[in-house]
Amino acid sequence: MKLKTVAIVAAALALAVGMTACGGAASTAASSTASSAAASSEAASSEVVSSEAEATSAEYTVYNTTGSKVTELYLYDAGSEDKGENLAGEGLADGESIVITRDVEADKQADVVYVLEFTTEDGNTQSFDTLHYEVAPISLKSVDAAAGATAIAFEAPQK
């Protein structure tokens, strides 16, 4: 988007310089029009950049589909030793869900990697180590169901 805006501004300026070289009143009008177009293009570019820089929240709707009560649930920065608070609180019964939100500065969102870790009442702990900054439904799987690639699925449970 920025490259396109820069190309438009450059073309408008080149047109203005070319028209000025031809001389006369027409070139002055063209130069004025090109300058005006460049200014409005630059303003539009600033507007786009500022809207792209607006922070959005990451939101994870976590569904317990383990068949057991989830007694511990953490979402923390990958590489951190501090897991933060237990998001399961008093426990998350099978079939229940919780919405977890995170806010990070817009320019840092692409670099965020979280670990989602949970423990069920039978003592099984599982984790997903490469959760990115996004809006996503997440279904926690039982140990048996997680025998595949991951301990979670990026979907809401079927009703």
UniProtKB/TrEMBL annotation:
Highest taxon of source: Bacteria
Lineage of the organism: Bacteria, Bacillati, Bacillota, Clostridia, Eubacteriales
Species this protein is from: Faecalibacterium prausnitzii
Protein name: Cytochrome C
Signal peptide: 1-21
Keywords, alphabetical: Signal
